[in-house]
Design goal:
Blueprint: E1 18-21, H1 31-40, E2 46-51, H2 63-72, E3 78-83, H3 91-97, E4 101-105, H4 113-121, E5 125-130, E6 148-152, H5 170-175, E7 183-187, H6 195-201, E8 205-208, H7 210-213, H8 218-226
Parallel strand pairs: 1-8, 2-3, 3-4, 4-5, 5-6, 6-7, 7-8
């Protein structure tokens, strides 16, 4: 991968399990350094959590902060998770800010074919996220048009919550409907303790905030989550 450009094939290389540090638990006073530190410790991509105070009861970061991450880590693959009631209102801004892959929530956009095409036309890969209570079949036939499905294993809004193991039952049901190169991500409460069950269920993108940024040895935490 070129040092100054993200690798657009990252999600397409399905042979590789991806670990995504979520900067929601980073030290925001050192955000650029925290991004570089998590990539140097073995993170494959930066997970960038966007909360609008409406779809979830919290506010986090917007396009200007994403652009700062892009400047701090020009070679990083940025995966933006839009926990927003109207994700379509923000996709152009996140494309300009340097996002490579963007996930919207199916609860917010139950008929997303138009949104999926808009995201793709902006040059980004696209995923659909499901809250813990949302069944796998909420993802319609348009599952074919996605690069990934993100299964939430906590109720979105905050880092540091406990993993909800019941959501893993959705993973084989989704996998049965997906091509091998389409990815299944898991997000929320992922740690060295919970990652083995996620990997065994078939998840191939593991997102973690507190278990990575709160670890005394970040590289060891990332290796453990990856199962190395
Ligand atoms: C939750 C976010 C997650 C969060 C995960 O609303 O979507 O990405 O950062 O945090 P941990 O890994 O601490 O549960
Ligand atoms: Zn997230």
């Amino acid at each position: 991968m070129a040092a100054d450009r993200p690798d657009p094939r990252l999600y397409a290389d399905a042979r590789r399990l991806l670990v995504e540090p979520s900067v929601l638990s980073a030290d925001f006073t050192q955000l650029g350094e925290e991004c570089r530190r998590s990539l140097a410790a073995g993170g494959d991509a930066i997970h960038f959590d966007v909360m609008d105070g409406h779809f979830v009861p919290n506010l986090s970061m917007g396009p200007a902060v994403c652009a700062a991450v892009r400047r701090a880590a020009p070679g990083a693959f940025i995966d933006t998770h839009l926990m927003c009631t109207d994700p379509g209102a923000f996709v152009e801004a996140f494309a300009r800010a340097g996002t490579n892959h963007v996930s919207f929530h199916v609860e917010a956009v139950p008929h997303p074919r138009g949104l999926i095409r808009r995201i793709r036309a902006l040059g980004m890969a696209v995923g659909c996220a499901l809250n813990p209570a949302t069944p796998a079949d909420a993802v319609g036939e348009w599952i074919d048009e996605l690069d990934s499905v993100l299964v939430m294993s906590v109720h979105p809004g905050y880092s540091g919550q406990s993993f909800i193991p019941e959501v893993l039952a959705k993973v084989p049901a989704l996998r049965a409907r997906m091509r091998p190169e389409q990815r299944i991500a898991i997000d929320g409460g992922v740690s060295p303790a919970t990652a083995p069950a996620c990997r065994a269920a078939g998840c191939d993108v593991l997102v973690a905030a507190s278990a990575i940024f709160g670890a005394p040895d970040m590289a060891a935490a990332i290796h453990a989550i990856r199962g190395e």
